[in-house]
Amino acid sequence: NSELVTLTYGALVAQMVKDLDNVDDVSKQLERLGYNMGIRLIEDYLAKTSTGRCHDLKDTADKIQSAFRMYLGVQPNVANWSAAGDEFSFILDTNPLTELVELPDDLKALKYCNIICGVIRGALEMVQMDVQSWIVQDQLKGDSNTEIRVKFIRRLEDAIPAGED
Amino acid sequence: MTVYNLYIFDKNGILLYYCEWNRFKQSGMTKEEEAKLMYGMLFSIKSFVSKISPLDTKEGFLYYKTSKYTLHYLEIASGLKLIINTDNNAQGVRELLQQIYSQIYVEYVVKNPITSINQPIQSDLFKTKLDNFVKSSAVYLSKAI
Fold first, then answer.
1. Quick one: pLDDT band at residue A161, thresholds 50, 70, 90?
2. Which CATH number is associated with domain B3-136?
3. Residue B9: which of B133, B85, B121, B95 has the closest Cα?
4. Please, which contacts does B90-98 make with residues 24 or more away whose CB atoms are closer than 8 Å?
5. So what's the pLDDT on residue A165?
């Protein structure tokens, strides 16, 4: 049942809004929280799917799509590829995190689902990909879909063993 | 068939875990030195294999065999490396490694919030689970052919 997750997440955000004065700080903390989840979640994903390295970014997008299905029970569409092929968006028509949520006016700047961006960044960093992720459209702000943008920055190199001389 | 010992390295070459069951000859160096030597060799084999391969490889380096033992190597996309030494008759070690990863490492290290990842594993729960898992596996139990 995803309602428990929705409510727990809502309670978390509400508490953070109370604890931190600044709405931007809340968004930032949510992203950090997601990052820390992502670096662990990726291991669970790899163990469950026993998938290997990605060949290209399209492959990566497909796999994240399947991860959305596994962990949130929704199937986002992959769309809006940039001409260079290094940027794309996930479009969610329903977002389980925001199902029972309405944003009050004084929190319009809050990026409520920023945790997802953090998870994507953290998980991809563990598979040698440096990406940026942010929310472009948000159903909580009156848009018809939630759109999460992912931008590929660079490939992280394998570490060379220390003291090889 | 027997399992001799097991190494787990993270993507930066830090030895996360080492344990042995039937090791009759020690390397004569400290564990730290041995781990460095091991990781260095694996790193070299990996790049050697991918450079020298006449075809595009998917999985790359899988195992090597000597007259006395076989070293099996499994690398996860996240850079985690599991290495296990067995005797030469052992079957299905690759599956065993995959299971150690998904059923022991992920369950008792990754999903345990107080164990930090990318640091040597201290968790006793992990140690006992791993020990039991390996000892009850078919690779460990079946008699030498």
1. low
2. 3.30.450.70
3. B121
4. B90/B1, B90/B2, B90/B3, B90/B139, B91/B1, B91/B138, B91/B139, B92/B138, B92/B139, B93/B63, B93/B139, B94/B62, B96/B134, B96/B137, B96/B139, B97/B72, B98/A50, B98/B74
5. 40
Q: Which residue has the higher pLDDT, B113 or B41?
A: B41
Domain ranges of chain B: 3-136
Return the closest-CA partner of residue B18 out of B81, B70, B66. B81
Domains of chain A: 3-155 (3.30.1380.20)
Residues in chain B with CB shorter than 8 Å from the CB of A50 are 98, 102
- Which residues on chain B are in Cβ contact (under 8 Å) with A43? 76, 78, 80, 105-106, 110, 117
Cβ neighbours of residue B118 under 8 Å, at least 6 residues apart?
Answer: B10, B12, B14, B16
Percent composition of chain A: helix, strand, coil (DSSP 3-state, to 5): 50, 15, 35
**How far apart are the C-alpha atoms of A132 and A122, rounded to whole Å?**
10
* Cα B74 from Cα A87, distance rounded (Å): 31
**Alpha carbon A24 to chain centroid distance?**
17
* Cα–Cα dist B137/B145, whole Å: 17
CA–CA dist A148, A145 (Å, integer) = 10
Contact yes or no for A44 and B13 at CB 8 A: no
Phi and psi torsions of B75, nearest 5°: -115, 130
pLDDT confidence tier of residue A97, bands split at 50, 70 and 90: confident
Instruction: Tell me the shortest Cα–Cα distance from B99 to chain A, in angstroms.
Output: 9
Choose from A37, A46, A129 for mutation: most chain B CBs within 10 A.
A46
